Amino acid sequence: MRYLILAFVLLLAPPVSATNSKPELAKVLEDLLAWLPGEYTSIPQVYLERALGAPPDGEHEIYYRVFAEIDAPHLAEHVIYTQIRLDGDDGTIFPGQQQVFLISMDEENSRVSISGRRIKDPENYVDAHLHPEMWSTIAPDPDFGGNCTFNWRRHGKQLRGLLGDHGQCTMVSKRSGQQMTWDAEWILNPTQLWIYDNGTLADGTLFAGREDRTHLRLSKAQRYECFASLRLADGTTQVINPFFMHDRGDIFTFETDEAEPRELHIEFLNSLWPSNSGRNYVDLLRLTLHDGEPGEYKESKVLGFAWAEPSSNRVGFTTEWASARCKVAAPHDPRLEAAMAGQ
């Protein structure tokens, strides 16, 4: 009987949190603020899906997403601004995805909580992470959000964010009056953010997300300073130095200085190598110069190629007709900052 009573008590007890003390919770907050900010893209995931096969719902979308901590004490002590661009870092803004994350420690429930809010007048705050003068006027849009918190705890060597208490939150839209349930899980480490985020209506209709329930895998990008040199048919040399690229599938396109100019592409990708056997399924940093179309890697089109381990922080090649090199950009390089601001 004693064992039966004990089992009954255990069933009634709330689940034990993975983060039980205030110092552990403070470390979760510290890691969240250190790991989440940065540039991310899903290009490495899509590259592998095209090479090895897509999940049941087809390949994932190509998103470029930025998270940046901003100084906005009128909103919260810790605020992260985020936005999504479609296809790449120069793509169009994803409507409704310019948000501020208001972050706080919830000691009572042993979690770090995020209230994600769309911002008011988002068209006035494009690339707000690059413009500190905008931060003091950013405000949440009262017509959206504020219904559910995203709650983070330690999950092994990663951080795990769940919507509500167990990954789901049911709410009524302030705009449409429809009931909807969001089911979401985010997994974060220093180099990747995996996002599962499905939305369903009261009748079970999926209006956002994927039926196959697979995560969007965002890889954190790093910016590199690059140069390229070409020896042209007339004996002259064309040098492009510097230009800046990120290492998660960026493409730099330029024309040659010739009587009949050619369009060439430099592609830069840090991702798993798509090995069908699995024996060479490792991360590689790859730099490719080619003509033709972006993403076209036929042997006849490649003019130069190099690979290195990602930890090397640089990669380059030299051939009879061309050379190129990329190295990790120096922090706060004014040329990089000007390039990022579109100047």
Could you explain how this protein is built, in words?
The chain is mainly beta and 343 residues long. The protein has helices at residues 2-12, 22-35, 43-52, 334-340; strands spanning 38-41, 63-70, 78-86, 99-106, 111-118, 150-155, 158-163, 168-172, 179-188, 192-201, 206-208, 216-221, 223-231, 237-246, 248-255, 263-272, 283-290, 302-308, 314-318, 322-328. A hairpin with a 5-residue loop joins strand 13 and strand 14 (237-246). The chain is globular, with a radius of gyration of 24 Å. It starts with a helix and ends with a helix.
Q: Which key phrases capture this entry?
A:
single chain, 343 residues, mainly beta, 10-stranded antiparallel beta barrel, 4-stranded antiparallel β-sheet, 4 helices, 20 strands, disordered N terminus
**What string gives the helices and strands in order?**
HHEHEEEEEEEEEEEEEEEEEEEH
Helical content stands at 10-25%
Oligomer: single chain
Number of helices: 4
- Given helix and strand content, the structural type is mainly beta
Count of DSSP E strands?
20
Calculate the terminal CA-CA distance, rounded to whole Å. 76 Å
Mean pLDDT: 90
Report the portion of residues in β strands. Answer: 35-45%
The main sheet orders its strands as 1-2-3-4-5-6-7-9-10-12
Tell me the overall shape.
globular
The main β sheet shows up as:
10 strands, antiparallel, barrel
Low-confidence stretches: 1-16
From the alpha-carbon coordinates, what is the Rg to the nearest angstrom? 24 Å
